[in-house]
Design a protein that fits this description.
Elements (H helix, E strand, L loop, with lengths): L1 E7 H12 L5 H8 L5 E9 L7 H9 L2 E6 L2 E2 L5 E2 L3 H12 L4 E5 L6 H10 L4 E6 L6 H6 L2 E4 L8
Parallel strand pairs: 1-2, 1-6, 2-3, 6-7, 7-8
Antiparallel strand pairs: 4-5
Helix pairs in contact: 4-5
Amino acid sequence: MQRSILIDVQNLFYSARSIYNSRVNYVTLMQFLTLGCTNFCAKAYLVNQPNNSDSKFKQLLRNLSVRLMTKNLSRYHSGKKKGNFDVEIATDAIEFAAYSDELYFVMGDGDLVYSIEYIKALYPGCKIIVASFKGSTSRKLQEVAQGFIPLDNRAFLL
């Protein structure tokens, strides 16, 4: 069985912080998501932090066999800052679904609902599962997925 895991790091970070005033335990999370699976591909999407202050975190993810996609924070004239990976996640999801039995979206952002619907139509043999914090996960995202794993268990938090 091939399992692909797409992790929106910023989405999980802000959800864990706002709901539980905590951080995500990626060791426990990855152990759980890969349980019983010997063939998996995992990719995390994260914004680079100033002064490379996230290098230990990036190394932790690499040690867990998670590939990284990073980019710098976009700053707009209005002063707004944004580090959105929706297009990258949607594109990778379509690619990974072609050879996956299960595709995990580890995020709660409803912006990917259309992509999930597209993947389900294109690759009906690929099961779509969302894993995120219940209080910050789009209801529509939960509805279009074929499975939902709430990460509200304290084991997934530091």
